[in-house]
Amino acid sequence: MNFKIIDQNNAVTLVGGGAVGRNDLAAALALGPTCVAADSGADVALDAGVDPHAVIGDMDSISPAGRARIPAARVHTIAEQDSTDFDKALRSISAPLIIAVGFCGRRVDHQLAALHTLVMHPDVPCLMVGEEDVIFLCPRDFELATEPGARVSLFPMGAVTGRSQGLEWPIEGLDFAPDGRSGTSNWATGPVRLQMDAPAMLCLVPRRFMAEVAQRLMQLPEHARWPARVGQHTDPQGS
Q1: What are the two backbone dihedrals, phi and then psi, of residue 59, each rounded to the nearest 5 degrees?
Q2: 210-218 and 24-31 are packed helices; what angle lies between their axes, rounded to 10 degrees?
Q3: Spatial CA neighbour of 142 closest among 209, 208, 200, 219
Q4: Cα–Cα distance, 164 to 102 (Å, whole number)
Q5: What pLDDT is stored for residue 238 in this prediction?
Q6: Alpha carbon of 31 to those of 25, 40, 66, 125, 209: distances in Å?
Q7: How far is CA 29 from CA 44, 73, 92, 98, 129, in A?
């Protein structure tokens, strides 16, 4: 079992070193008041006047000034280079939900790696916040009280099928894959229900649904959740 650096009963805000809009961090902290930084995300948090509860990563991008402002006991170095700092943080946090800011925008390779990480940790409820959208891995069964005309985009990160209610273009009977069919720019006809057969479909909805999505992800019943993938990294205590 992975050692958990952070173990919380409430949602956690995870800050990365990517693009962070003026209201991103405040909106995330309103839902997840414990702030954790992934490496250089500590600089982003400190610049916003937020003192991270912990910093997790390989510590190759945090600034010397930022490192000096954080007590050594809060700095958790995971030195391996086989995973990203986002991955290291997700597997080191136990919480009902992780709200990730600073993982979209700027470098496209970093954003792609973050989306890959969402799929690699299907058992970790995580909501990634972008400038216009929030992004999450579709659970087995997910409902959202959207209004007619709201955009609901589905993008497969692997082969996946599913069913839907409340979409203009239903997905039942369709085979989705990164090199095949995607489901972007669909829209809701009312409340939406999505059921997936594999942990491989990303859902993107407008940012105004951030609080609603966060609440739904935190309240998922056990049957609607995905199990952990076999063979993930394990981190020794004290890493």
Answers
A1: 60, 35
A2: 30
A3: 219
A4: 30
A5: 44
A6: 10, 22, 25, 14, 13
A7: 14, 22, 19, 11, 12
| Residue 133 backbone dihedrals phi, psi, to 5 degrees | -125, 160
List of domains in the chain? 10-131 (3.40.50.10240), 141-196 (no CATH)
The rounded Cα 15 to chain-centroid distance in angstroms is 11
Phi, psi at residue 208, to the nearest 5°? -65, -15
Q: Report residue 173 as tokens.
A: 């009977």
Chain-centre distance of CA 155, in angstroms?
15
> Is this model's pTM higher than 0.90 or not?
yes
What is residue 144's three-state secondary structure?
Answer: strand
**pLDDT over 60 (residue 236):** no
Q: Which two tokens stand for residue 61?
A: 């991008």
Quick: pLDDT tens for 21-71. 888 999 999 999 999 999 999 999 999 999 999 999 999 999 999 999 999
CA angle 219, 132, 179 (to 5 degrees): 85
Write the DSSP assignment of 187-210 as a string of letters. Answer: EEEEEEEEEESSTTEEEEEEGGGH
Convert the pLDDT of each residue in 97-112 to its tens digit.
999 999 987 788 989 9
